[in-house]
Amino acid sequence: MIKLLYKKIIPEKQRIHLRLSVQKAISPVYYGENYTCNCCGKSFRKFLDKGNVRRKNVRCPRCDSLERNRLLLFYLEKETDIFTKNLKVLHVAPENCLYQKLHSLNIEYIDGDIDPAYASHVIDITQIPYPDNYFDLVICSHVLGHIPDERKAIQELYRVLSKNGYALIMTLINKELEKTYENHSIKSPEERLKHYGEFDLYRLHGTDFEERLAKPGFTVETVDYRKQLGQDIVNRYRLGDGNREMIFKCTK
Ligand SMILES: [Zn+2]
Questions:
Q1: Ligand 1 centroid vs 58 CA: distance in angstroms?
Q2: In angstroms, what is the span from residue 123 Cα to ligand 1's centroid?
């Protein structure tokens, strides 16, 4: 009852902000030496668990970062110009931990989500309200599996990316599937969880994900950045097993 009232009175955006503030305040109880989060810069004795199918020791107790967010931040810092050049950046469905690192940079930073509670701009990825070739860098992590019309979304990402730019796209991949599994008779959240591994996924990507991205014209390079960083870094920063952490670097 109290929970329902709280949800009714406090708008979702403020509830998210409040949850993150409380989490940050109590995070010192997790401080330790075993693991480090490069998003918030703190070290912990353990990370928290995450996911409908539980992944152990993966979520930062302070900033909420996950394996893929920490890996992507390493990539952005070491392999892109985002921290040094005045780029035009589109960040689709921005993760708070990355938003905190990016929104105050000297760049044109557009963070967008279909739900206004989750970003500064309301953006439908299948109808991105920006001109052709506009963005130097597009970040779109773990979004496409949730979009009913994925083909249109990929076309839009292609359209708004500049000719010298690149899009960094990530998704959950089942490496045993040669072809992406998508069954249109699956409707309920329970069935989605059973078939795709998450309540709100529309498909489970297979190893053909690269081909799907290439359809509108992208040239796709699949980067396993965990391998480039090495096992010590992967262990300390908990950078995952590679199922959610491949970086698909797309150029046009
Ligand atoms: Zn953190």
A1: 10
A2: 27
SS3 of the chain: helix, strand, coil, percent, to 5: 35, 25, 40
Q: How many domains does the chain have?
A: 2
Which structural domain, as residue segments, surrounds residue 40?
Answer: 2-59
Residues with CB under 5 A from ligand 1 (ion): 37, 39-40, 60, 62-63, 65
Q: What pTM value is reported for the model?
A: 0.95
Residues 76, 22 share a domain: no
Q: Does residue 223 share a domain with residue 103?
A: yes
pLDDT one digit per residue (tens) for the chain, 252 residues? 777 777 777 888 899 899 999 999 999 999 999 999 999 999 999 999 998 889 999 999 999 999 999 999 999 999 999 999 999 999 999 999 999 999 999 999 999 999 999 999 999 999 999 999 999 999 999 999 999 999 999 999 999 999 999 999 999 999 999 999 999 999 999 999 999 988 899 999 999 999 999 999 999 999 999 999 999 999 999 999 999 999 999 999
CA of 61 to the centre of ligand 1 (A): 7
